[in-house]
TrEMBL record:
Belongs to the aldose epimerase family. PANTHER family: 1-EPIMERASE, PUTATIVE (AFU_ORTHOLOGUE AFUA_3G13240)-RELATED, ALDOSE-1-EPIMERASE. Keywords: Carbohydrate metabolism, Isomerase, Signal. Residues 1-17 form the signal peptide. One of its GO terms (molecular function) is carbohydrate binding. Gene3D superfamilies: 2.70.98.10. GO terms for biological process: galactose catabolic process via UDP-galactose, Leloir pathway; glucose metabolic process. The keyword Metal-binding does not apply. Pfam families: Aldose_epim. InterPro entries: Aldose_1/G6P_1-epimerase, Gal_mutarotase_sf_dom, Galactose_mutarotase-like, GH-type_carb-bd. This is Putative aldose 1-epimerase. It comes from Lachnellula hyalina. The keyword Signal applies.
Length: 425
């Protein structure tokens, strides 16, 4: 039985997650309370549409995922700039499960040895990565386990013309994690902005919580007629002077490394194309064993206290081809960049993407065809107590909720030739 205090805490959590927009209408149920509002159902593909000024997006309950994000480029052509599938029903059918645009949870990224210790007690959770004959359950846990939060249909609790809120109740013991967690995720579109607000509350036991958004970007809508990759996108991360060191299966070693100026991981001293250093041997193995590219958690080194909405951005991704520029603002202290080296042409583009009618361009996401940007906390911080991340990653009943906020601000920037290393094209 939930106590009145707990119900009120849940309500407060929901209130924190929900958009603060005057004149909004809600529809849905929270606890016992039914909130009446205008009811926009899903479209024929099972997707919910919201829109802001010069921006439109589709979301689905599966993983509380973004499935489409439309903007007009500098030529006035509409581009769908995120990876996803054509319809909501296919997300649970596709065997590859690329974590397409969803919310990895209850603990994003990797957990070493699928275990952690809280208050002296060791918890073993389900593994799902690096499966070998000796380790049939995997050597580690990625994105919350084989049935993590982005494998589930969330509950739609609110939907207005410019915002949508999903909720998930993750039961005690699911994937091996202790205690129930209740989460609300709200997405809001503004004037060429996409805001994310995630809250999660541990209602019964002390447990790790670390959420993220796992969106695949191609700012050309996969329609760049000169390249199928995103390697010509430029990336700038002005606060990313350090990164979390990982071993050859991408598990943190405990070390935090400096990103030396001019090195393959230097995206802080100036913008650089994602592919700028791909001919340097140092890039091989940079994202795990024999892997070329990036699958790396950079540290957002900002001097506290900081105003995350106005200081920053922590990252700028830009394609000179479409002119679309994305500035990422967030309250989170780490930022994972994955350059899609694992893509191998097995994921079909959506009908809203790609070059139609060009026969020599397959309608698939090719290797390096995208980049995943994940706002989050220090990966596997629960197994690195010396990093001091407990207040950001360990939560119990009565604690403040886990909170993640981010604002993705889009603009058009058709600068042809960029700064040093950004190249042309
Ligand atoms: C929910 O409804 C039940 C049964 O009507 C009631 O006992 C309980 O107090 C309600 N809870 C809240 C939070 O209103
Ligand atoms: C792109 O421009 C067209 C034509 O002006 C307009 O109808 C459409 O809504 C725009 N797309 C977005 C996402 O704003
Ligand atoms: C949903 O999309 C998938 C992948 O594009 C496609 O194979 C399938 O036929 C679609 N299903 C429906 C009902 O449209
Ligand atoms: C999740 O929702 C999709 C439709 O959006 C549906 O096809 C699928 O069966 C649902 N899965 C579960 C486990 O309820
Ligand atoms: C491509 O990647 C998918 C997903 O990881 C995998 O299932 C498939 O076997 C790969 N195909 C090839 C040819 O490597
Ligand atoms: C890894 O987890 C297993 C239980 O699944 C445990 O027996 C073992 O001691 C752990 N190893 C390390 C190095 O923590
Ligand atoms: C949107 O932002 C642009 C510039 O950033 C501004 O010129 C425009 O007036 C804004 N539109 C609305 C409806 O606020
Ligand atoms: C790509 O498209 C642009 C604009 O439509 C055109 O100017 C250019 O010639 C095309 N490039 C190739 C290689 O087809
Ligand atoms: C390393 O990867 C390359 C392709 O990227 C492949 O050709 C080569 O066989 C791999 N080497 C090993 C030792 O796995
Ligand atoms: C546009 O991109 C160029 C090249 O990276 C950069 O120097 C400039 O600051 C950007 N403009 C804006 C307004 O962000
Ligand atoms: C990486 O690329 C940048 C931009 O072209 C260049 O300045 C730098 O020297 C390169 N670093 C390495 C290690 O190749
Ligand atoms: C990608 O950028 C390089 C410079 O780094 C440039 O030489 C090349 O033409 C660009 N290619 C495309 C397709 O934009």
């Amino acid at each position: 039985m939930r106590t009145a205090a707990l119900a009120s805490a849940l309500w407060a959590t929901y209130a924190l997650a929900r958009p603060q927009v005057a004149g909004e209408f809600f529809t849905g149920t929270v606890g016992n309370t039914t909130i009446a509002g205008d009811n926009h159902g899903p479209d024929a593909n099972g997707k919910y549409v919201i829109y802001g000024e010069n921006i439109r997006a589709n979301f689905i309950p599966y993983g509380a995922s973004i499935s489409n994000l439309f903007l007009n480029d500098t030529s006035g052509v509409e581009r769908d700039i995120v990876g996803g599938f054509d319809n909501a029903s296919y997300y649970g059918v596709d065997k590859q499960h690329p974590h397409f645009g969803g919310v990895p949870g209850r603990y994003a990224n990797r957990i070493k040895n699928s275990s952690f210790v809280i208050d002296g007690e060791t918890y073993n959770i389900l593994g799902n990565e690096n499966i070998t004959p000796e380790h049939p359950n995997g050597l580690d846990t990625l994105h919350g386990g084989p049935g993590g939060w982005d494998w589930r249909n969330w509950t739609l609790v609110a939907h207005t013309h410019n915002s949508i809120t999903f909720s998930l109740t993750d039961p005690d013991g699911d994937q091996g994690f202790p205690g129930e967690v209740v989460s609300y995720v709200t997405y809001t579109l503004g004037n060429m902005t996409w805001d994310l607000r995630m809250v999660a509350i541990a209602t019964t036991k002390v447990t790790p919580i670390m959420l993220s958004s796992h969106t695949y970007w191609n700012l050309d809508g996969f329609a760049n007629n000169e390249t199928a990759t995103a390697l010509n996108h430029s990336l700038w991360m002005p606060y990313a002077g350090q990164r979390i060191d990982t071993d050859n299966i991408l598990i943190p070693t405990g070390d935090i490394l400096a990103n030396q100026p001019g090195s393959v991981n230097d995206f802080w001293s100036s913008p650089k194309q994602l592919g700028a250093n791909f001919s340097n041997p140092a890039i091989v193995g940079n994202c795990g064993y024999n892997c070329t590219g990036y699958d790396t958690a950079y540290v957002n080194n900002r001097q506290a206290p900081y105003d995350w909405r106005n200081e920053g951005p922590v990252a700028r991704l830009r394609s000179a081809w479409s002119g679309i520029q994305l500035d990422v603002y967030t309250d989170q202290d780490a930022f994972q960049v994955y350059s899609c080296g694992g893509q191998n042409g097995s994921v079909t583009l959506k009908g809203t993407q790609g070059l139609h009618g060009v026969e020599d361009r397959p309608r698939f996401i090719e290797q390096y065809g995208c980049v995943v940007l994940e706002v989050e906390d220090y990966i596997d911080g629960i197994n690195q107590p010396e990093w001091g991340r407990d207040k950001k990653q360990i939560f119990g009943p009565g604690d403040d909720p886990f909170v993640l906020q981010a604002s993705y601000k889009f603009s058009l920037n058709d600068t042809e030739v960029g700064l040093l290393g950004e190249g042309s094209g």
